[in-house]
Design a protein that fits this description.
17% helix, two-stranded antiparallel ribbon, eight-stranded antiparallel barrel, 8 helices, alpha+beta, single chain
Amino acid sequence: LDAGVDRIYTNKHFPPSNSKMKPTDLNPSNTPVTVPNTAHHSLDGPSTSTTKDLIASFYNTTVPAATPPTEGTPPPPCPIAKIPSEILIEILLKTAIADIASFARLSTVCKRFAFLVTTEDRIWERICHGREYGFAAMHYIWKTSIAGKPLPTTLLEASDLRPDNPLDISTLNLTDSPSFSTVPVQSSPILSLSAVYPSYRQMLRTRPRLRFNGCYISTVNYHRPGASNTSSNSTHTCPVHIVTYYRYLRFFRDGTCLSLLTTTEPADVVHHLTKENLQAHHNRESMLPSAIMRHALKGRWRLSGSLGYQHDDMEKEGDIHIETEGVDAKYMYKMQLSLRSAGRAGGTRNNKLVWKGFWSYNRLTDDWATFTLRNDRAFFWSQVKSYAMGW
């Protein structure tokens, strides 16, 4: 809900008066109190209130029955209006687990639904702790190797690979994770309310989390000069090329991801961005539409933050670390991005990934190289219906 909708309505239908004078005698005609008197109304319109106050005023409301089809006829039955609140909340909970967007849209049905959807914290707590949309599906330590193989369930977990964390080349495995260290295994997330997240609804909306029912796309455009005309000295005859390419990132719930750099437009890519197509076309020539996946790279991801084991005390909540294969077996790529929100205030959250760093690691020489991000742009999330819930 828009927190300013009441003010917009007030300014439209009750514009403030230029005069601040108010009558001294509110009932000059000594009429009975039952007769409405326009002098009782404020010249500046009704008092403004926040969305929170407006929702709180719906506390004692009920689900209204449908209006009669014609005057004088009884209204049609409304069975949901007779359901006890406990059962109604359970129905709303099942709806939220199945589709959180549909659950949120129920707040526009009536005042009773608006109150329950907004204030029933038990539903939002279940969503936050669940694997469907909540933080149980987020990983704050590595869960798989770069090749996608599950890591041991013992106390062995993959350590971070950073320019300031060199590796012993003698212990290097070129197909799996580059190194291991003994760290605690991540347990189930413990979500507690705080001043930053005063409610579970606010936590789900604002706390950084990835989305699995779509992919993140970065569109890059840049100009470069073409071949000069040797028969003319005029600079106006020199062509300029507009280069466009795309970066795709799709994250999976098991801690793996796919990275793809191509000039093919999203409509011809997103539906083929699956593990099955990667397995079928990886480094293989084919004429099928899904052959675009032969250039895709396997990888893994984890989030930073205070939820779960923290690799680095300097890490801040909201960064995502990605490690993928390189163009050759001896290389590995590391990306660091930050989860942000794009669009109007109150709209979709966590739908933008901003670059913070991009590196290449040579496993054989133990050398790091930094990619410049002069042309690269941020990733924006796009929902793909064929992914469904991204299980």
